[in-house]
Structure formats: structure tokens, C-alpha cells
């Protein structure tokens, strides 16, 4: 089944705490931004003057944004974030990582708690109305992982069962709209969702297929029985709506990085150790903001 999954993924054509610099995470923030809160985002010039760029990332979404056993934040998004800081401010240590949850990403931008979101943020029409997305740097679809002995291979298999999702994700949106008959168990954090799957509180878990594949490879007894479901989408950085100066700088940066195949290097450093040789980077990576 895993070989089937890997083959399917290869065929996809499109597929809160604070951390300063590269050190250990500080204590969690007392509270995140209030729903609907608004504040004016910092301009590119103001970020340069401050000497630090604040980037919202995940702390529990391995291998894209997570805290390792040494307390260091790692992953595909983190590698990119550090390069943004280096090219904008002269050093990758000039980035201030702010841990976000999936459902809080938009609010962290609206309330100017962060300058940029780099938290595996899928581009959707609804989100475009609330934030400005830069050019994409990855492509993805949804997948569903479940225990081998009770493998879910079709949405119909979930009738009368419970599907775990994370709040504010495309998985929550898709299953709520397309399969309202399926009972959803929702969590704020990815680690909570995986823990619920491991201890049997749900029958399956859905999120980006790139992530559930990585998780299944690292957790024996689980398989991604639904390899791809819903739309194939892109992942992109996001800024507060109307922050044009910063948006244009990020777009230019992504185009420039494409000339050196930066995201392929990112893949080699952060994703290949997880996927091995089973997943070709062309099925995930987007260079220069151009989806092929």
C-alpha cells in the first residue's frame, strides 16, 4: 500500500511561543491575537530599521516546521525563513520565529503579530480575501492516514466513523463541505491530532498528503490509504493584506532564489532525509514561483 501511495504521489502534477534567531524557544505567549483584531503591519523599511523580521511558523508539523529533540526549530519552511532573513537583514539570526496554529495564521497577520506567515499555508480563494499571498514554493493535495488493521481507502469507509482534522486547515474545509456525513474530531495543534490517532480517539487523520506520508513512514502500523483527495493546491508565504512593499520584495526573492534552485536544496536538506529516494522533488518543489 505504501508503494502504491508513493507511486500516486509521484504522479501528482500539482500537487504560540516565540523563538529568536536559531536558539531555543522561549515560554509560550500568554495569549494569541484576538479574533478579528487588526493592526497596521510593518513595512519593509520598518522591518529593516528594526533589524528583525517576525515570521509565523509551525512548531509541530514535521518535516515542514517543527521543534527537534534539541529544542531547535527545523524544517522546509524554516530553511526558507532563515534565507529570507539573511537576504533582507544580512543574517539568518535576524529572524524571530513565532509559533502559530493553523487556525490562527490569518489573525496573526491581521493583528500584525508577525510580518510573514511561512506555516505550510495553502493558497485558497477564501484566504485570498483576508491576506496577500506571495508566489508559491510548494504544491500539495490532501491525504488520509489510518491504522493498517482498519485501513481507510475511500471516504465511504468513514461513514459512522470519526475523522481527525486540525482547525483552520484545508482538510477541515474540504470534509465539512464535501462530506458532511463524516464526523470530524477537531484539534488546534497537529501534535494533538496525531496523539488522538495513536490512542484511537479517531479512525483516521487528514491533512496534506506530503505530511501524512512522512508521518506514516516514521510510524509503523499506519498507512496513507487515501493518497490524494480534493484539489491539488500550492503553498505560499502570506503577508497582511495591502502590505505591497513587503509582498513585492518576497516575490522578487522567490524569483531570484529560483535561479539557484534554492528550493531543491531546501528539499535535499530537510525533506529527503524523511522521504528518502521515494519522492522526487519535482512533485513537491516549486522554483521561481512557477508551477509546472
How does this model look, in words?
The chain is of the alpha/beta class and 292 residues long. It has 2 domains: 2-9 and 141-233, 3-Layer(aba) Sandwich (D-Maltodextrin-Binding Protein, domain 2), CATH 3.40.190.10; 13-138 and 234-283, D-Maltodextrin-Binding Protein, domain 2, CATH 3.40.190. Helices cover 34% and strands 23% of the residues. It is built from 10 helices and 14 strands. It has helices at residues 2-10, 44-50, 76-89, 105-110, 125-128, 170-178, 190-198, 209-218, 244-259, 262-275; strands at 18-20, 53-57, 60-61, 65-67, 73-74, 95-99, 116-117, 131-133, 138-147, 162-166, 183-187, 204-208, 222-235, 238-240. Strands 11-10-12-9-13 form a 5-stranded mixed beta sheet, sandwiched between helices. Strands 1-6-2-7 form a 4-stranded mixed beta sheet. Helix 6 links the parallel strand 10 and strand 11 (183-187). The protein is globular. It starts with a helix and ends in a 17-residue tail after the last helix. Mean pLDDT is 88; it is low at 1-31.
> How much strand content do the residues show?
15-25%
Encode the helix/strand succession as letters: HEHEEEEHEHEHEEEHEHEHEEHH
CATH level-1 class of the largest domain? Alpha Beta
How many distinct folded domains? Answer: 2
Assembly state here? single chain
Could you give the distance between the termini? 28 Å
The CATH architecture designation of the largest domain is: 3-Layer(aba) Sandwich
**Main sheet summary:** 5 strands, mixed
Number of distinct beta strands: 14
Number of helices: 10
Helix content: 25-40%
Spatial sequence of strands, sheet with the most strands: 11-10-12-9-13
User: Would you tell me the overall average pLDDT?
Assistant: 88
State the secondary-structure class: alpha/beta
Q: What is the CA-atom radius of gyration, in angstroms?
A: 18 Å
**Low-pLDDT regions:** 1-31
Please tell me what the overall shape is: globular
CATH superfamily of the largest domain: Periplasmic binding protein-like II
CATH fold group of the largest domain: D-Maltodextrin-Binding Protein, domain 2
Amino acid at each position: 500500500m505504501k508503494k502504491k501511495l508513493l507511486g500516486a504521489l509521484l504522479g501528482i502534477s500539482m500537487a504560540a511561543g516565540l523563538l529568536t534567531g536559531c536558539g531555543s524557544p522561549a515560554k509560550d505567549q500568554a495569549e494569541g491575537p484576538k479574533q478579528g483584531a487588526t493592526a497596521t503591519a510593518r513595512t519593509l523599511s520598518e522591518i529593516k530599521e528594526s533589524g528583525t523580521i517576525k515570521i509565523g511558523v509551525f512548531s509541530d508539523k514535521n518535516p515542514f516546521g517543527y521543534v527537534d529533540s534539541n529544542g531547535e526549530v527545523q524544517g522546509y519552511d524554516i530553511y526558507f525563513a532563515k534565507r529570507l532573513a539573511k537576504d533582507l537583514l544580512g543574517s539568518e539570526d535576524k529572524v524571530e520565529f513565532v509559533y502559530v496554529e493553523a487556525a490562527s495564521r490569518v489573525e496573526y497577520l491581521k493583528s500584525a503579530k508577525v510580518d510573514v506567515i511561512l506555516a505550510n499555508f495553502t493558497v485558497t480563494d477564501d484566504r485570498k480575501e483576508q491576506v496577500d499571498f506571495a508566489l508559491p514554493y510548494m504544491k500539495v493535495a490532501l491525504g488520509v492516514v489510518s491504522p493498517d488493521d482498519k485501513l481507510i481507502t475511500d471516504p465511504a469507509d468513514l461513514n459512522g466513523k470519526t475523522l481527525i482534522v486540525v482547525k483552520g486547515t484545508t482538510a477541515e474545509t474540504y470534509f465539512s463541505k464535501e462530506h458532511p456525513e463524516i464526523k470530524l474530531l477537531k484539534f488546534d495543534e497537529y501534535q494533538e491530532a496525531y496523539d488522538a490517532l495513536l490512542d484511537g480517539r479517531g479512525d483516521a487523520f487528514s491533512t496534506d498528503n506530503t505530511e501524512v506520508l512522512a508521518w506514516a513512514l516514521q510510524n509503523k502500523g499506519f498507512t496513507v490509504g487515501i493518497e490524494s483527495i480534493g484539489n491539488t493546491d500550492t503553498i505560499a508565504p502570506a503577508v497582511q493584506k495591502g502590505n505591497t512593499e513587503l509582498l513585492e520584495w518576497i516575490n522578487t526573492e522567490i524569483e531570484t532564489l529560483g535561479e539557484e534552485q534554492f528550493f531543491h536544496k531546501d528539499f535535499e536538506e530537510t525533506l529527503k532525509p524523511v522521504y528518502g529516494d521515494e519522492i522526487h522533488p519535482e512533485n513537491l518543489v516549486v522554483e521561481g514561483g512557477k508551477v509546472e
